[in-house]
Sequence to fold (425 residues):
Amino acid sequence: MAPRKTATAKSGSKGAAATKSGSKGAPKKRVAANGFKLPDPIAPGVVVKDVAKQNWKIGKSIGVGGFGEIYLASSNTEVPVDSGADYVIKVEPHSNGPLFAEMHCYMRLARPEHIEGWMKEKRLKRLGMPKFFGSGSFEYNNHKYRFMVMERFGNDLQKILEHHSKRLSFKTVYQVGIQILDVLEYIHSKEYVHADIKASNLLVGHKPGTENQVFLVDFGLARYYANEGCHKEYKYDQRKAHDGTIEFTSRDAHIGAHSRRGDLEILGYNMTQWLCSRLPWEDNLQDCNYVFAQKRKCMENISAFVSQCFPDTVPQGLQEYLEYVVSLAFDEKPDYEHCRNILREGLRARGYRDDGKLVFTSATPVPPSRKPKSRQGRKKTFKRRSEEEENLGDAKKQSEHKDLSKDIHVGNQSEQTMPDGLFFR
Fold:
């Protein structure tokens, strides 16, 4: 059996030097678009040890992010890491820092026993919270790196969107929304907000049986919204203003404040974009204050906002969801089940069952006014139907909901000075 490659303080010697592909000079430094230094390529077969003394073997690279690189990994160090590996390792230079913050967040939120305990308490069959398996530091080619071991996932929703004309089916958007509300309820219970929900941070499961499960990843911008039950105050913080991804950042985050309602608002913007392909403020994303002002305008008149995005037919339940988000006070705990029920009722009104299945097709659902005809007594045909059509249930009459429109509350905080006079109440 060939000897293992092990990353240690001595890995810059003979064995590690051989990974420079025969180059006589020092390898050129790799830098991401955001300016962070990327790690030099790690040779497949290197073994690293986490703080719990668990060994992990690194496989091939499967992606490069804004501050590090992601490799396949295995806990079995005796054989090469194959393409079916169930783990990945995120690696960044020790001098960077983003992975350090994310790593500590995962340590508090993503331990398997914590996730499984929550699922048992809430009687959930699944939860799209990624699991954390280990972390540590190592030296390779005389450079120091930190790493984190996570479970492996499949494609992200952004890639799927790009293959479907930047839109997802109504059913899939609402099923994903329900799943993400489950995850938000979990992380909010730990006094964290995610703050960067978007399609590229939503990954479909890799393991068999998780094909219809979406996982919320990348907690690099996650932060505490409270400390031991005491919510942070609503105030302008220039250092954190406009944090997140500008298209989806919540109005709270635009002023540097973070809240649970902010995460729900970000999810609402995502669902809107996935259904109509473009948000009204995407014409000038370089101007953060313009985007903020447009969001304030749209959320002050949600009926006009959804009509602008959907001139033909407004998706059932979307307006009600956004109105509920607007009704929340800055420090108020959301009613997650109410939000899920809004989306479930939207599915039922369009003739779908809440079966949790994700359907990445362009199939057209049965309109709510047309009840699918019974197949009983019908002559059997061999016309192939899409999976989405197979999941259609009986369209049911939608019950009237209470008007949730109310004034926006932010507690008793005084107004804060904002750039260009912008202030969200």
Remarks:
- Confidence is low (pLDDT under 50) at residues 1-6, 8-26, 362-425.
- Residues 321 and 339 are 6 Å apart (CA to CA).
- The first strand starts at residue 5 and ends at 6.
- The radius of gyration is 24 Å.
